TrEMBL record:
Keywords from the UniProt entry: Cell membrane, Cytoplasm, GTP-binding, Hydrolase, Membrane, Nucleotide-binding, Receptor
GO MF terms, alphabetically ordered: GTP binding; GTPase activity; signal recognition particle binding
Protein name per Swiss-Prot or TrEMBL: Signal recognition particle receptor FtsY
Keyword Hydrolase: yes
PROSITE patterns: SRP54 (PS00300)
Main function: Involved in targeting and insertion of nascent membrane proteins into the cytoplasmic membrane. Acts as a receptor for the complex formed by the signal recognition particle (SRP) and the ribosome-nascent chain (RNC).
Superkingdom: Bacteria
Assigned EC number: 3.6.5.4
Gene: ftsY
NCBIfam families attached to this UniProt entry: ftsY (TIGR00064)
Length: 301
């Protein structure tokens, strides 16, 4: 399984209840389904889209089996997500023509950013890559310490400076070092102080500019880490970060301990940014490549 038991139970039991014993798609079923989806953290907008699609697909008041209705729901959700997901991210592989591949990791404190970086480092290393970490969240001493612990655990080098030093300077050092070490992938941690948006925007822009002095087409990925257990707040953060910088992919963490995994559907549908990874635990093995078929399947199993 995917570590999504709680989401699955929550989603499936609510949706099943809404659908169970019904033999036709009438307004009552659609209303109940709408409630069930909203309560499963799928969010209002995404829920309305799903209901609209089912209304269109199902012949109104025509008799159906519970199974048919479930399958209809499943296929509509999957179809809806098709455009948002890039299906090329099947393994922890890197594009051969971008070396070093630079990943800038953004997100607010506490969402699991450091842990996700550690897990990525583990996975890329496991695939035979030389990994380098950059500790550009210089605002919190704990952030640098935590990343250092991960670098030791996974046994990959890290570039860091004293706390309070310029994040852009750390980022610059990191990519310079990556070039001289011939690293395959560079993963740079940044501070995510969303409460000061202008400052955050300036800081991220500056980091990008200095990276580009060394590697003109970098960063190749701006990965936003979101805490799935915060439900709709995660969606809100995704919107806010997108207004500050060009987020190119998402990692959604802590889906193991929460029943709010339905938010993944909302985020994927509304942001049109691919969800690349999901976090399903605290260990380095607990990062999965997101696969929408598997995800939707697991919700209905
Ligand atoms: P940061 O402040 O964003 O860097 O957050 P951390 O990486 O330090 O993570 C905060 C807490 O969340 C830590 O206790 C992590 O072990 C935990 N955590 C991170 N990712 C996951 C996950 O996918 N599942 C679970 N259960 N815990 C996680």
């Amino acid at each position: 399984d995917q570590g999504l038991e709680k989401t699955k139970e929550n989603f499936f039991s609510k949706v099943t209840k809404a659908v169970a014993g019904r033999s036709k798609v009438d307004d009552e079923v659609l209303d109940d389904l709408e409630d069930a989806l909203i309560m499963s953290d799928v969010g209002v907008d995404t829920t309305l889209e799903i209901i609209k699609r089912i209304e269109k697909r199902a012949e109104k008041d025509k008799y159906v089996t519970t199974n048919d209705l479930n399958n209809l729901l499943k296929s509509e959700i999957e179809d809806m997500l098709v455009d948002a997901f890039d299906q090329t991210y099947k393994t922890f592989s890197l594009p051969a023509d971008k070396k070093p591949y630079v990943i800038l990791v953004v997100g607010v404190n506490g969402v699991g950013k450091t842990t996700t970086i550690g897990k990525l480092a583990y996975n890329y290393k496991r695939m035979g890559n030389n990994v380098l970490l950059g500790a550009a969240d210089t605002f919190r001493a704990a952030a640098v310490d935590q990343l250092t612990i991960w670098s030791e655990r996974v046994d990959v080098p890290i570039v860091k400076q004293d706390m309070g030093s310029d994040p852009a300077s750390v980022a610059y050092d990191t990519v310079l070092s990556a070039v001289s070490r011939k690293s395959d992938v560079v993963i740079i941690d940044t501070a995510g102080r969303l409460h000061n948006k202008v400052h955050l925007m300036d800081e991220l822009n500056k980091i990008k500019r200095v990276i580009q002095k060394v590697i003109p087409d970098a960063p190749h990925d701006v990965l936003l880490v979101l805490d799935g257990s915060t439900g709709q707040n995660a969606l809100e953060q995704a919107k806010q970060f997108s207004s500050v910088t060009d987020v190119s992919s998402l990692a959604i963490t802590k889906l193991d301990g929460t029943a709010k995994g339905g938010v993944v559907l909302a985020i994927a549908h509304q942001m049109m940014i691919p969800v690349k990874f999901i976090g399903v635990g605290e260990r380095m093995e607990d990062l999965l490549i997101f696969d929408k078929h598997e995800f939707v399947d697991s919700l209905f199993k």
